Amino acid sequence: MKEIGLYIHIPFCKSKCLYCDFTTMPYQDKRIDEYFKLLLTEIEMYKNKLEDCIIDTIYIGGGTPSYVDSKYIVEVNNIICKYFNISKDLEYTIEINPGTISYDKINDYKRIGINRTSIGVQSFNDDLLKSLGRSHNTNIVFNDLSMLRKAGFKNISFDLMMGLPNQTIDDIFYDIKNINILNPEHISWYSLIIEENTRFHKLCKEDKLSLPDEEKDREIYSVIISELEKFNLVQYEISNFSKKGYESKHNLKYWNVKEYLGIGIGASGYLEWHRYTNVNKYNEYKNLIHKGEKPLSNIEKLNTKDKIFEKIIMNMRLTKGVNINELKETFGYDIIKLNKNILENYMKLGFIEIINGNILFTQSGFNISNKFFVDINI
Question: Nearest 10 degrees: CA dihedral of 7, 8, 9, 12?
Fold first, then answer.
């Protein structure tokens, strides 16, 4: 059976963070019950589509899945198990925002087989958290982690952010100090991106955000990589670090261009060389479900060039890079033959290496990855 991933989107949040452009529904608790009824109906729409597939990763994201009553997560799990084939070696993740869990919720998560949590820490500096519009503080993170460990969770990931307004290198070292104390199995450390239609975008246009320059950003990134490695949190992707054996299997599906089903408002999926996105307006999502239609807003079938380009881009996010022979065998594409001079030039500049048949970025190469992708011939 073909192995695929499953992503479930829960849009509800206590509030909207100032940098967030995800599909979220803060202050709309009255819609929670109705939304989950719609979500269960959408899942059922795919029951015949995946008869020959086995789900080996499930990722419940948002939004803040831990914000809603755990009974809804249990309902979603039950219908997934009813209609789909589930792997015995399932990686099953739920995103958690600090301050939104309880022992009852955690016990429900454990009971249905959730075995991995991703906690939205973002920073251990309480002043920075306030400036982001986060509703938690560092003490809450410590308390939540203690609850999860007592409940038996052995695979815990932290989400953190760099490049924040007024963030200093000392703040980064303080984050790393707390990471060492709390000892998570996985870290995702993302750079702040100022997205349109966010509060930060408005402040940025008004010149009211003090953001680090590119040189400071690279210095911080280098510190993160070297310091985390001291705690056996080794970089395996541009923004991701883990102890051995704790790499995110679900996210690796994205970077290895593997198939996954996306369910819920605004969710995306990738099945049989088709990328699709669900509508992100609640009433539109609701109306399409009520009509018995999948709530799709966009479907794109990838042609051969698209597939090759996506394979290169996504694989080269990984520290292991893209395999030359795999490109040949899968697509008949000889990256060396078509890009000999380009590759040699990037190697001379110290931006890429070829190791064990894989083309991969060096640390400095990650900084110019976009230019590399523009230059190569497909």
Answer: -140
Going by the DSSP 8-state scheme, the letter that residue 65 receives in this structure is G
Please give the Cα distance from 263 to 8 (Å, whole number): 5
Sign of CA dihedral 31, 35, 38, 40: negative
pLDDT digits 0-9 by tens, 269-299: 999 999 999 999 999 999 999 999 999 999 9
Give the H/E segment covering residue 54.
strand 53-62
| CA-only gyration radius of the chain, Å | 21
> DSSP states of 66-135 as a string?
GGS-HHHHHHHHHHHHHHSEEEEEEEEEEEE-TTS--HHHHHHHHHTT--EEEEEEE-S-HHHHHHHT--
Convert the pLDDT of each residue in 229-248 to its tens digit: 999 999 999 999 999 999 99
- CA distance linking residue 73 with residue 117, whole number of Å: 14
164-183 exposure pattern, b = at least 16 Cβ within 10 A, e = fewer? bbebeeebbebbbebbeebe
pTM of the predicted model as reported, rounded to 2 decimal places: 0.96
How many Å apart are CA 323 and CA 333, to the nearest integer?
A: 11
